[in-house]
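Appendix B: complex inputs.
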Amino acid sequence: MTEEIGRARAAVERARDGGKVALISSGDAGVYGMAGLVFEVLKSLGWKRGDSPELRIVPGMTALNSCGSVVGAPLVHDFCAISLSDLLTPWSVIARRIEAAAAADFVIGLYNPASGRRTRQIVEAQAIIRRHRGGETPVALVKSAYRKRQNAAVTDLDHFLEYEIGMLTTVLVGSSQTFVFEGYMVTPRGYANKYTQDGEVLAGQRPGFSLVPSVKEVG
Amino acid sequence: MTEEIGRARAAVERARDGGKVALISSGDAGVYGMAGLVFEVLKSLGWKRGDSPELRIVPGMTALNSCGSVVGAPLVHDFCAISLSDLLTPWSVIARRIEAAAAADFVIGLYNPASGRRTRQIVEAQAIIRRHRGGETPVALVKSAYRKRQNAAVTDLDHFLEYEIGMLTTVLVGSSQTFVFEGYMVTPRGYANKYTQDGEVLAGQRPGFSLVPSVKEVG
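Resulting structure:
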């Protein structure tokens, strides 16, 4: 952690000295990444917009995106990301988030679930979620997505703690609607099974509009 | 919606006939995208792993990633994504999620916040969140990130409804820790201001480990 603050400071200082500096984070620098730290360093230096260094934040894919695609399509409906690292965040805040996410039926992505030293949090997280979801709820464990040692498993809420979970593992817990199909973890887009696969509206359902505006709509 | 089911079916059918088919979604096909629908179509056809067509899911950046980077670093700590479209999800489920996310201090990304016909949901969402967060909580509105008509604004919870919000807008609501700095929206990595900018441990805080395992750690 102190090392990361040092990296951010060094990057900003070199850029102020006229260097063209790229500060790299794995995944998305804006998601649990270095981008926030750069702003904190700039703030401490009294930096103003327009001052040197000029700043550009380049988005990337976070573990939710990469790990999700490895195991299927678990994030097709509402989801959240929670880091289990309590180094900078009180466990009470983290536990409250897990509880809220579990109760409100979000698909849950757990970052930093465990490490050699830190193994208690994922066990507590499982217990909290289990109070709100069935033991057969799909859970995926993905390690090092798209890297050499990629490793993925699709299991369930009652059994995922039997697997190896480390610092490079992302844990994806399904919602009440998530299902496993041919080993893939899939969350459908809605609750009401409003449409048949032929696009017909089911009995008792109002039809939707085929041009209903949607951020995901592709023309 | 019915159109999208048709697209998924057509893609699967052409692929089964031997075609090499790419089914494109804006953002990440796995986040509110077409990937889930493809699995639903395959399931309805009794497809098995190993059958034709062979399947590959390619991850992408979702609006959270792209829109976040446009306005700064709002997603450096726990966040969630909620779609306000109640076409396939009962509003009661959506409202419960907004309430839970607001109460548990998540940064909240709202997808599909409004459309020409559908304007009530974002107003209700604001009211729910406002019960849990101050009116000065930073809110960013980003439209068409990295596209021709990109448009972004950083405002706050009491004023964002005064802006134009449409089908291509993503709304990012800060947590209690999120701040605005030189027009950028930034969420710090932790709660305790445990470290000074020089990496020194503040009085009364236990030091962390510089090599504490983290998914975001870059060697």
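Chain A is about 25% helix and 15% strand.
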